[in-house]
């Protein structure tokens, strides 16, 4: 018997079992969050052709979809793949895993944490496998290997994030202190590591700025087209429960739409069906499904659309200014020692910085576009979301230009006073009073 943190006596639990219990609770809680709106809609008559068991299987399929598991859909024709992940809903298992990771970190020593992680991921894999096996139907099916493995991706991300947050440092998490490892390396390796890490953070800042601007543009589009959205809702006649379920579903895909809008600002645009394009240069959407939130998508190219292309450039300028303030441009220092004309070394280092930061930003934006896109496997709605390669390439180019501009203009934004304007320092007297040297009693 041992004493718990509040003085209660309890039997010691093996770490692998504790991890399994904590993440079994997370799986059940996320399942309940999905079951409640599905059965509310079923009780209200939203699924009149479904039995209670069928509604429960539908909830299980939605649970798998929230974890990023693709569903195979067969509705009479050729089977398709429902791969559009509602990223807003994915936050539910991610945050629950983050909370569970913090609990496991508090209960484990550094060299024992792997036991809790193995138990946690093992039980979650079994939950996903069982859900895929039970909830598969002739119309919607999920291979059990995918049901076991794919849900582990967001859960592992949340688990490691929670463990890192609770541990406070990577040394407590993995038993190795990166700061000590870097301190033992050569000075050139430390400079190179600091430079690359600053480039990565600057690129991440640029991508976050682009995504934030995309969210703002989406909010503006929803506000401007609110009347059209309300018209679509009224045409559906969903009822009170149906309207609530519809609202929850649309909230789940709002992060996807924000990423689509960010891709729009890069010039690449996005698709809302096979053969469609929505971009600042051209708009061809055809007939859209009766989903209220899609009423915010422009059916023609707005007159101010080309101005959105400035967003990634401005985000890159912000990243370049931040990199200047970080003062970690050791590549520029290295070039300055080898190339005597300063204008040549400064130009080369700035161009390399822009290319490197732009390339990383393009990769990150391409990853976001890939996560937000997909299809629902029905009709022409097999292609939804940004054009991956074009989004990554254009974002990389625009952010690179912005980083170069921000790094060049940054010194003028600092507003540091010239040296001649600094207050003069008082001269220090070189004489010493002999009495000051006498010992005090």
Automatic annotation (TrEMBL):
<feature type="transmembrane region" description="Helical">
    <location>
        <begin position="345"/>
        <end position="370"/>
    </location>
</feature>
<protein>
    <recommendedName>
        <fullName>Integral membrane protein</fullName>
    </recommendedName>
</protein>
<feature type="transmembrane region" description="Helical">
    <location>
        <begin position="146"/>
        <end position="163"/>
    </location>
</feature>
<feature type="transmembrane region" description="Helical">
    <location>
        <begin position="20"/>
        <end position="43"/>
    </location>
</feature>
<keyword id="KW-0812">Transmembrane</keyword>
<feature type="transmembrane region" description="Helical">
    <location>
        <begin position="195"/>
        <end position="224"/>
    </location>
</feature>
<keyword id="KW-1133">Transmembrane helix</keyword>
<dbReference type="Pfam" id="PF19877">
    <property type="entry name" value="DUF6350"/>
</dbReference>
<keyword id="KW-0472">Membrane</keyword>
<dbReference type="InterPro" id="IPR045931">
    <property type="entry name" value="DUF6350"/>
</dbReference>
<feature type="transmembrane region" description="Helical">
    <location>
        <begin position="80"/>
        <end position="101"/>
    </location>
</feature>
<feature type="transmembrane region" description="Helical">
    <location>
        <begin position="304"/>
        <end position="324"/>
    </location>
</feature>
<feature type="transmembrane region" description="Helical">
    <location>
        <begin position="113"/>
        <end position="134"/>
    </location>
</feature>
<feature type="transmembrane region" description="Helical">
    <location>
        <begin position="390"/>
        <end position="409"/>
    </location>
</feature>
């Amino acid at each position: 018997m041992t004493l718990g943190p509040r003085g209660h006596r309890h039997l010691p639990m093996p770490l692998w079992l504790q991890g399994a219990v904590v993440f079994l609770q997370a799986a059940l809680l996320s399942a309940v969050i999905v079951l409640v709106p599905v059965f509310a809609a079923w009780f209200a008559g939203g699924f009149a052709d479904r039995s209670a068991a069928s509604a429960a299987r539908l909830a299980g399929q939605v649970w798998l979809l929230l974890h990023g598991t693709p569903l195979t859909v067969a509705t009479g024709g050729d089977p398709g793949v429902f791969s559009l992940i509602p990223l807003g809903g994915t936050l539910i298992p991610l945050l629950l895993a983050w909370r569970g990771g913090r609990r496991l970190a508090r209960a484990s020593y550094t060299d024992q944490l792997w036991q809790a992680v193995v138990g946690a991921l093992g039980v979650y894999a079994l939950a996903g496998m069982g859900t895929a096996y039970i909830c598969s139907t002739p119309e919607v099916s999920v291979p059990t290997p995918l049901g076991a493995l794919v849900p582990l991706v967001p859960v592992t991300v949340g688990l490691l994030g929670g463990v890192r947050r609770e541990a406070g440092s990577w040394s407590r998490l993995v038993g190795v202190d990166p700061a000590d490892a870097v301190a033992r390396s050569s000075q050139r390796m430390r400079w190179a590591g600091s430079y690359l890490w600053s480039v990565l953070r600057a690129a991440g800042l640029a991508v976050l700025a682009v995504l934030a601007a995309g969210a703002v543009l989406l909010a503006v589009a929803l506000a401007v087209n609110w009347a059209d959205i309300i018209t679509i809702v009224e045409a559906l006649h969903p009822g009170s429960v149906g309207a609530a379920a519809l609202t929850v579903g649309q909230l789940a895909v709002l992060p996807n739409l924000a990423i689509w809008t960010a891709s729009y600002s890069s010039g690449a645009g996005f698709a809302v069906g096979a053969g469609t394009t929505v971009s600042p240069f051209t708009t061809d959407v055809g007939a859209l499904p009766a989903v209220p939130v899609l009423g915010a998508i422009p059916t023609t190219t707005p007159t101010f659309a080309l101005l959105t292309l400035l967003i990634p450039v401005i985000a890159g300028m912000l990243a370049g200014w931040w990199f200047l303030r970080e003062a970690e441009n050791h590549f520029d220092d290295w070039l300055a020692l080898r190339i005597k004309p300063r204008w040549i070394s400064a130009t080369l280092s700035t161009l390399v910085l822009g290319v490197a930061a732009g390339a990383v930003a393009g990769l990150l934006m391409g990853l976001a576009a890939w996560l937000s896109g997909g299809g629902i496997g029905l009709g022409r709605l097999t292609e939804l979301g940004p054009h991956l390669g074009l989004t990554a390439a254009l974002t990389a180019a625009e952010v690179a230009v912005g980083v170069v501009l921000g790094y060049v203009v940054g010194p003028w934004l600092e507003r540091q006073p010239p040296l001649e304007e600094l207050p003069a320092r008082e001269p220090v007297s070189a004489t010493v009073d002999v009495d000051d040297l006498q010992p005090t009693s």
